[in-house]
Specification:
The protein is an all-alpha fold. The protein is built from 6 helices and no strands. The chain has one domain. GO terms for molecular function: heme binding; iron ion binding; monooxygenase activity; oxidoreductase activity, acting on paired donors, with incorporation or reduction of molecular oxygen.
């Protein structure tokens, strides 16, 4: 018989897997190319998700004054968001400066965002690119991970 210590938290494993896959399609590179990125990003994302769930159930985010108070996980959200932003900002800077190339055979999301222009032929700012890339990565990640875990 197997012992209880051999249990695997499949939801956590699927969460890390789907985040890595989606990030690879967004940035054209896996977390493996950046030391400790996978652990940092997964941990930061899960921290933000947990605090946001807590705050949402208590309707804290509905009143901006309450959401800005240094309670109910505000510091956790700020610190984890900073780590996520730093990761994406580094990926953007590396791609702009030619320090990294997409591992995808075609263009990845970051390539598309960097080359996109509006009707005035003006490109996105780094902040806009970061926000769009994070939205893409974080929006599909948790739903997919949960679906995979429940499928088993």
């Amino acid at each position: 018989m197997s012992s209880l210590s051999n249990r695997i938290d499949i939801e956590t494993e699927f969460s890390a897997l789907t985040l890595s896959i989606i990030a690879s399609s967004a940035f054209g590179q896996g977390f493996e190319s950046i030391p400790h990125a996978k652990e940092t990003i997964c941990h930061s994302f899960n921290e933000v998700k947990d605090v946001l769930e807590y705050r949402a159930l208590r309707l804290i985010g509905l009143v901006q004054f309450l959401a800005d108070l240094p309670f109910w996980g505000k510091k956790t959200i700020d610190e984890a968001s900073k780590k996520l932003n730093e990761f994406v900002d580094q990926a953007i800077a590396d791609r702009r400066n030619g320090k990294s190339e997409s591992l995808c055979s075609g263009q990845d999301i970051l390539d598309l965002l960097l080359s996109a222009v509006d009707e005035h032929n003006k490109g996105f700012s780094d902040q806009q690119i970061r926000e769009e890339a994070l939205t893409f990565v974080l929006a599909g990640h948790e739903t997919t991970a949960t679906l995979m875990a429940w499928t088993l």
